[in-house]
Every structure is written in C-alpha cells, then in structure tokens.
Design brief:
Strand content: under 5%
Strand order of the largest sheet: 3-4-7-8
Oligomer: single chain
Number of strands: 10
Number of helices: 20
Helix content: 40-55%
Radius of gyration: 21 Å
Shape: globular
Structural class: mainly alpha
Length: 484
Amino acid sequence: MDRTAQLIARPAEYTAVYDPTTSAGSLHLRAIEVLDGNWTGTSTVPSHGLYPHQWSWDSAFIAIGLRHVSPRRAQTELETLLDAQWGDGRIPHIVFNPSVPLDAYFPSPDFWRSVTAGRAAGAPRTVQTSGIVQPPVHALAAWLVHRADPGLSRARGFLARVYPRLAAWHRYLLHRRDLGGGGLVSVVHPWEQGMDNAPSWDAPLARIAPAPARSFRRADLAHGAPEDRPTDLDYGRYVRLATDYRDGEYADGRTDFAVEDPAFNALLIASEHALARIAEELGATGTARHARAQRLTAALVDRLWDPAEGLFFCRDLRGGGLIRERGVSGLVPLLLPGLSREIVSALVGTLRGPHFGVGATTRLAPSYDLLGEAFDPHRYWRGPAWCNTSWLVERGLRLHGERAHADALRAAVLDVADTSDFAEYVDPYTGEACGATGFSWTAALTLDLLHDTQAIQETQATHRLPHGTAFDRADSSFKGGDRG
C-alpha cells in the first residue's frame, strides 16, 4: 500500500475530504504526508533537519491545519506544548526532544539551562526548554481546534484543561512584559517575535556587543545557503542577548533589547478575543476579555500606527521612538476586528502598493519593504515571503470584507505551496523555494486554506462579539458572505 493509500485508510486518525485525483485533492494529501512525516508521536517538528524540536508558534499554526484532518492530533499538539509551560505562565519558544543529539541544533538545551537558570521563574524540571517566548497564537488555535469537533473537545475536556494555562500565558505577557508602560507587550529578543532577522531589529541590535564567534556553533548553516541566513555578526548579537537573559535567570525588564512589535501584539489581541469565546463555551463570561482586547487595540493604534505611512511600526523602548522599517509585521494587525475602516483601507493600500506589491509585482506578502535598502528576496525575513504571514493577512482581508483580494492571496498561497514543495519561505516575486522544504506550518496552513468555506465560518464565529461593542461593524461583513 502506498503512502497516500495508507493515510486515507486511517479514518480514526485522518479525515480525507478531497478526491486525490484532483489537483486540490493531491495537494491536500501531500500536505497530510508532510505533517505525518514530521510527527514525533506527541508533537510536530517544523522540519526534521533544520528544526528537530517543537516550536511554540509553529505548533499553534500546525494545530490550526491539523484540526481539519485529525482534531485529536491537533489537540495533542497544543497539549504537549502547554505541558512545558513555566510556573510564571510563559510558554517557551522551544520544547526540546531528549532523543535528539545536542549538536543537532543550536542553541541547544545545555545553552538555555532552563532547569537551573529558570528555576526562579518556574521552569519545568522534567523537560528542557528555551527561556524566551514566541507570538501568542495559542488561544486562537485552541478555539479553532475546538470548533473543528466540539463533541470530541467536550468529551476530552480539552478547553477546560487548556483554558487556565492559556489565561496564565496571557497574564504573564500583560503583567511582566509591558515594559513601556503603555499597555503593549514587549519582546526581549528578535527570536521571540518570530521574524528573527527582520531589518526592524537592526537599530536595536546595533547597541548589542556580539558574543565571540568561537563561543557558539551555527547548526543552521548546515541546512541552508549561508547567503540566505543571518550574518555571523547578527547571530553573535542574538547569542549575546540570550546569554544575558539566561544569566539574569530569565527575569524581565533588565534586558538591553525591548521592542513593542505590531504582529506580536495583534496576535495577543486576536487570542484575547478567542480566550473570551473559550470562557463563554465553559459557561463563564468573556466580556472582560473582549474589553481588554479593545483596550489593547486602542494602545496598538496609539503607540504603533503611523497614518502618514499607512502602516504599523515597531517601537524601540531602549532607543526611543518608532523604528521606521516597513515589515510584514506592520500588516498583520489587519486580522483585528476593532480597526477603523480608515486604518483598514490604508493597510490594504500599503499591502498592494509599491512597498509590498501584493497582487501587482509579488505573489505573496514579502517580509520586508521591496524598496528598502536592506531588501533581499532570499535572505531570512529580509524580503522572502512566508506562508504564515500571508495566511494572517488573508484572514484579515476576509474579515474586513476585502473578498477579492483575499481570494487572490489565498490562490497564490496554495499555488506557491504546491510548486515549492511546502517551502519554509519563498522568493516573493517568483515563489522559488528557500530554506527547508516539507515545512510543517506551510503544509498545515495549506490544509486550512483548502478547507476555506469552513475556515470562513470559524473566522466569523471567532470574531462574533457582543452587540454594542466597537466591533459590530467589522463582524457584520461576514453576514451572508460565505463562499459556496
């Protein structure tokens, strides 16, 4: 029996809904094969070569795709990650697999020393993790996973078990990471924001003395072209920041790098809305969480929005002021239902204008300004396009009634995923594969877009907020708007 037949033959594990003789059916099954090949038994690695452990926001995106074919596995994905949560509420950005050799990835567990250096912050004793975090997509993922099979979710007590952990995660971010005092969450390392090598970090990083090159070994260069990866100088600064944070026992507020990022905060806001829906499902009220999401949206606009540029920018808390580098992070707030029509229109104009060119010169949303001095179509987060950011932008376009633009971007993501063999990232102009292929979140979000009618319904449910709030207008764009 071939691999495709094996997958179809396991109805208890996967639900196959596409005819494998069609192009969509073939893509659907190939995406399942990627996720099945990257499954470890309890979680999914991004890719076995370059990323052989569990990554935090990867697992959230993976669960969002897995819910369409195996809701049980999607639940397990999130539960495994949450089992590694620290006592202070943080969800670490890496959960290490003890069966993987130490030299397979750097920084490895012996660098982070979570069990000892993280003791004061409540790091788990039975599993080794990193000490930094990644964007909080998890509550959104949990809500969507629940809605994929509410009966299974309720029978397993899925939401009842994950809700307290997700609430603690949000408390950590809101209470420990409001380093600027303006209500927004700060990242203390570029790796936390997920867009590791973005030009937005260049100015804050320039103040950091790099760790000596001899003090670390770059495992990433064995799996990708050096010219596509961060430079040794930048990597040395990443290592220095992580070392200082570790040596400070992962205490927040003391780092030399502190940046308010629009994508990180937008994902927190989206997850606050989702956490409110989870609370309501469990019989509690979500009113306070919806209200908090509204306040966070107002703070996001107040602190990071530039109406003249039509984009959200990062704010450097140590250097002062906005970092005026145009990155895809500044477009991600499109997924928020509380934005004014004026801001939405400006963001759509920026997305389709000369700096990002989506629908005109680029196939997917580039990670950085096409006209920027640092633009490179192949270098990590300095120009290439990524499936997850385009998925977030597509979701935002659809939320705000920009159906034609959303449809076009959805079609482009699916085509690029198909032709690039589910690449980690791609040239934004050509769709040429860069980095790893068979990348898990690319496969997972491909599944989500293939199930787009159901996805639209779930987007509507996630953002259906109480009447009388500022979000009614954005929510109303869905009424009668499902695609057949």
